[in-house]
Amino acid sequence: MKKPLVIIGSGHAGYTLARAFRQLDTSTPVIILTQDGGEQYPKPQLSHGFGQQMAAEQLVQQHATAIAAELKIMVRPNTLVTAIDFDAKLVHAGAVQIPYSDLVLAVGAEPFVPAIRGDAAQDILTLNNLEQYRRYVAQLERSERVLVIGGGLIGTEIAHDIARHKQVTLVDIGSRLLERLVPEVVSQRLHRAMAPVTMRFGTAVDRIDRAATGYHVKLSNGEILNVDAVICAAGLKPRLELAGGLATARGISVDRYMRTSQPNVYALGDCAEIEGQILPYLQPITLSARALASTLAGTPQPVRFGPLPVAVKTPHYPIQLAGVTHGPALDWQISEGDDGLTALAHRDSKLVGYVTTGSRNGFSLLPSLAG
């Protein structure tokens, strides 16, 4: 009997790969091992589901049993992979050994939480999967004052979302929202649109301690905040627990074919570092999964990325961007009207990136971006 393709992880990367592979190869056995329940859900929805009063179950699009039946694969939920024997081509899940012909690590990333002192540091909420969303919703439902740590993409979306129902304070060590994504003028407009949110920049959370009601939070600038919940959205770090024996940097090092340093072993999604790049967005993960499916089905195909658009889900001030929008030597050309703002980033007289806001749509600019 042919050994199976084994995929560890049932997020967007794992399931997109399984679907794409099944379209090309209907006979090779496929096994997906996942530590959680194996539900398929739109992960970007996590950061703005609370504002829409959505329970975790409402986010689920398909359960593991339905996916297994649809694709004629095996999905093993609640399965913890404990080791991988690359020489023997075996995956160990406790006492169970699963052989593989090809192995794909699609284990994702975990939230980065900076070192914070205090007896309540372990109560910090993170938001990167369905189980964390359940805890997040349960805590917010009994909270009124909420602290969000992080003013990047996810932290901004979370603060924007929950400010519809709660008193929100956002803290970031930087000087403004989306500092690494957009020019300062866009951050200023977004600050104005998110006026109900109290913002503290240039400082960090030093410690969190339990109080009679809620938490007592001390910032590095000495300011004291009293809140009922603390959410950390300070970024993600690739999961490397199963990467022993593989070349790694920030993530699992792969080439354009998603190949790791071990034969017949690949990495995909948030855990993969593709020739020095970590791209934790849906579109590059989808493109990578489709290319890898072709390779695994017998037609090697490298992944190719054009300019990748990103949408910031802040309905009071929608933002789209693509290309190079942060870094030195950018010459910005900005136009603004009642319908929003367009910021064009040039380097050496070439258009290399754009940011649009409001009702303006920048997707038509994608073909014009210099590679």
UniProtKB/TrEMBL annotation:
One of its GO terms (cellular component) is cytoplasm. It is found in: Cytoplasm. Residues 5-272 form the FAD/NAD(P)-binding domain. SUPFAM superfamilies: FAD/NAD(P)-binding domain (SSF51905). Its main location: cytoplasm. Its cofactor is FAD. InterPro entries: FAD-bd_OxRdtase, FAD/NAD-bd_sf, FAD/NAD-binding_dom, Rbx-bd. Residues 302-360 form the Rubredoxin binding domain. Keywords: Cytoplasm, FAD, Flavoprotein, NAD, Oxidoreductase. It comes from the Bacteria. GO terms for molecular function: oxidoreductase activity. Belongs to the FAD-dependent oxidoreductase family. This is Nitric oxide reductase FlRd-NAD(+) reductase. It comes from Vogesella indigofera.
